[in-house]
């Protein structure tokens, strides 16, 4: 069975949103499939539909994949990168407070190789990309770090410690809510 990423009405241009709270990034984990057997974390993103602007597509994809619907004025102008040989417009949404992970859900689905309909993402996490960039898809790292290196929160420049982040997952990979500890040490604006 050939699995196509493009659905009827889609065009080969993508848009997504980097959702940031201070030095943390809201990420989603794609549901494992034949195409992505061991996926890394991703941002809410996807193909534009015919007649849709990049900003409209990013807002729609984010809403489908996280249940968060941003107003257009909340998104900063995008950067454009190449993702899977096609343009990807990445917008930034800065939050004043973290969104509780238990409020997030994915209504976007796909049919796997066994004919079973599954959600496109199976869990969400707040990740510090300075310390855990290896958890993020290679193709997205430049776009994500562009926004994170552009503005670094000064309150974090002298911190040494740990932060617990919740990962919420209904999948077989993580069968329950779990806590992960992200250790970080920042000295002279560099994370170690």
Write down the secondary-structure element order.
EEEHEEEEEHHEEE
Distance between the termini: 44 Å
Overall helicity: 10-25%
Shape: globular
- Report the top-level CATH class: Alpha Beta
For the record, the count of structural domains works out to 1
Content-based structural category: alpha+beta
CATH superfamily: Nucleoside Triphosphate Pyrophosphohydrolase
Which band does the percent of strand residues land in?
A: 35-45%
Number of helices: 3
Quaternary organization: single chain
Low-confidence stretches: 152-192
Classify the fold: give the CATH topology.
Answer: Nucleoside Triphosphate Pyrophosphohydrolase
User: What radius of gyration results from the CA coordinates?
Assistant: 17 Å
Number of strands: 11
Round the mean pLDDT to the nearest integer and report it. 77
Description:
The protein has 3 helices and 11 strands, in the order βββαβββββααβββ. It is of the alpha+beta class. The protein has a single domain (about 10-155), classed as Nucleoside Triphosphate Pyrophosphohydrolase, CATH 3.90.79.10. Strands 1, 2, 3, 4, 5, 8, 9, 10 and 11 form a 9-stranded mixed sheet that branches. A two-stranded antiparallel sheet has the order 6-7. Strand 6 (about 110) and strand 7 form a beta hairpin. It is globular. About 25% of the residues are buried.
